[in-house]
Amino acid sequence: MPDSGLFYKEWKHNKALLIMIFLVFMLSNPFTVLNTYISYQGCVANQNEWVGTCVFTINYLNGTFISLFWIWGVVLAVSQLGIERSKGLFDFTLSLPYTRGQIFNAKFLTGGMVIVIPQLIGYVLSVLLIMLLKPEQAVYFHNYSLGMIIVSMLAYSLVMAGGALTGHIFAQLLVSFTVTILPFLVITLPAINIDILFGGAAFLDYPIPEWMQYIFPITYVIPNWVEDSPKYLVIPAVMSIMFYIIGYISFVKLSNERNGYFFLWKALDRPVQVIVIIIGILGFGYFGFAATESFAGYLIGMAAGAVIGFFISYFAIYKKTKLL
């Protein structure tokens, strides 16, 4: 368990952000209920002027504020790792009489509490408001309110893991974004290219199990996931634990000496560069084929993708980024 001094340090370094995130998480859900009720009352007051019947219904698929909660998990993780590392503050942090594991756990527990506790408070307040105001229906209220706690933690743990592996903010965000679409890059993109090469060999014609879309972290950016079984939320919960473990091991084992470089673990540089080039070849090959509907366009796209992938990976991975 981290020492209280580490929690105090996290509080002092990120106090304004922690307070803002806490308030946003706590108040957004009740505000959604109140805002819907106020709109309903406005409809009732002007019913003669408006066409249709006024119905007090809360639908959490209609662009509620809490659908953006995952963004705050990203912001918090970037502040705790990316910004602190880019400003060169880790030298001070690592010089404190604590182990690396304690430091990472203090950061993660602080972030986890600021994400989970206010959302639970906001959920309870919203339940009380719904009991008081008595809407005709609250669509997906429980599933979405509680599910967003898991989704927010997924975003937070993913970006924390990205920050523990990388040497600056851009690398942290780029690695995190890549992981959110990684199943597409390693499953769907190769299948598309195989279909092109074999003239529609039916790889993409096979029905995909519904649960498989939930291994794509980017799935949770759009709130439609709430329409399916709540049991699928076990998948992001497991992924959150997995990303925490990756982040913890990376933070403990990797040094901070390569500050400013893309990866803190140098052995990742070359394999990741090769993977980026392959993805560039497959991706641009597909776009070349889609644009020209010819195999020649496919080959030209692959060649362009190889060149672009090489230069992007070279300048991103091997060029040191200046500190802020």
Quickly list its features.
11 helices; transmembrane; ABC_transptr_acetoin_YtrC/YtrD; 324 residues; transmembrane helix; 2 strands; mainly alpha; membrane; two-stranded parallel sheet
In short:
This protein has 324 residues and is an all-alpha fold. The protein has eleven helices and two strands, in the order ααβαααβαααααα.
Would you mind describing this structure in some detail?
This protein folds into two domains: 4-181 and 216-264; 182-215 and 265-324, no CATH class. It has eleven helices and two strands; from the N terminus they run ααβαααβαααααα. Strands 1-2 form a two-stranded parallel sheet. It is 68% helix and 2% strand. With 324 residues, it is mostly helical. The two termini are 32 Å apart. The chain has helices spanning 4-13, 15-45, 69-86, 90-95, 100-133, 141-165, 169-180, 182-197, 234-253, 269-292, 295-317; strands at residues 57-59, 137-139. The mean pLDDT is 85.
Secondary-structure map:
Blueprint: H1 4-13, H2 15-45, E1 57-59, H3 69-86, H4 90-95, H5 100-133, E2 137-139, H6 141-165, H7 169-180, H8 182-197, H9 234-253, H10 269-292, H11 295-317
Parallel strand pairs: 1-2
Helix pairs in contact: 1-5, 2-5, 3-6, 3-7, 5-6, 5-9, 6-7, 6-9, 8-10, 10-11
User: Nearest-angstrom radius of gyration?
Assistant: 23 Å
Shape: flat
Number of domains: 2
> What is the spatial order of strands in the main beta sheet?
1-2
For this structure, the quaternary state is: single chain
Query: What distance lies between the first and last C-alpha atoms, to the nearest angstrom?
Result: 32 Å
SSE order, one letter for each helix or strand: HHEHHHEHHHHHH
Task: Please give the largest β-sheet.
Answer: 2 strands, parallel
Question: Mean of the pLDDT scores?
Answer: 85
In DSSP terms (H or I, runs of 4 or more residues), the helix count works out at 11
Q: What is the β-strand count? A: 2
Task: Give the percentage of residues in beta strands.
Answer: under 5%
Structural class: mainly alpha
